[in-house]
């Protein structure tokens, strides 16, 4: 099983690529394309509402194990740069850079773009990612040339990810929900990804931040009924004792989560943002959840300060109004939606 985020700027060819890689499934601000013909089940997630909203980008990345960053022949723009910063702040481990529309690009220009990317990604999580040239044009002389090479590379990375996910099976179950709806005769159905542990049919557990007891009535993966779902599995679940209208994207199925509206985070501020000041309003992302928060206090070495400079580390005390659920190991992202490059910092709960 592999979940793959297909990301990039609007005209990067990301949607054409995702549609070529799988059969269209669930669609909202993200669209799933399912593929069970490559020797393993794979889901390709197109964050097609980005750059209009950051939420679709973060959702796609946080339900995926692999990222494919699509870059068109025009090269890097502000939103491609923002995707690189998001991947780096998230510490995204596995990925591939797809240089799209190679059919309309001279080989010399592709080599120049690769050299430029090597410089730009140096020191980031992307610095060792492979670059693959391909085209996403149905009308090209050789349509989708290079996509088979991309598929082969994804399969190689997927083998490593399956081994990594197997090590998470002994941990307590956590499932991130990305969609919820009612089905006539079946009740509440949620879609999501098992982030850790092995979820089982008839498990009695909870849903957060509701903190409500629920039962998993049944589990499917790729439209097939299964008794259990290990880490990394994309699932559909029927739930008892909760209604779809009560569930929002980002809710978590598990036995225990931290639930709060206020946060104290040990943060690293991006080098590519403006300074953070007390009383400023940022947008907080954790898992698939998000909400606006106010910066109440900034601490450096235990002392209260008036600003957190780009590239610095600090403790941020934040207040919000909406309950979010998380665990200690979860990575938070902070964004300033008023800036061109919106990602401001990442951090962990103190």
TrEMBL record:
Q: Which GO terms describe its biological process?
A: selenocysteine incorporation
* Example GO molecular function: translation elongation factor activity
Q: Keyword Protein biosynthesis, does the record have it? A: yes
PANTHER family on file: ELONGATION FACTOR TU-RELATED, SELENOCYSTEINE-SPECIFIC ELONGATION FACTOR
Q: Where is the signal peptide?
A: none
What protein name applies here?
Answer: Translation elongation factor 1 alpha-related protein
So which domain of life are we looking at? Archaea
Gene3D superfamilies found in the cross-reference section: P-loop containing nucleotide triphosphate hydrolases (3.40.50.300), Translation factors (2.40.30.10)
For this protein, the record's InterPro entries field holds: EF-Tu_GTPase (IPR050055), P-loop_NTPase (IPR027417), Transl_B-barrel_sf (IPR009000)
- Swiss-Prot/TrEMBL keywords: Elongation factor, Protein biosynthesis
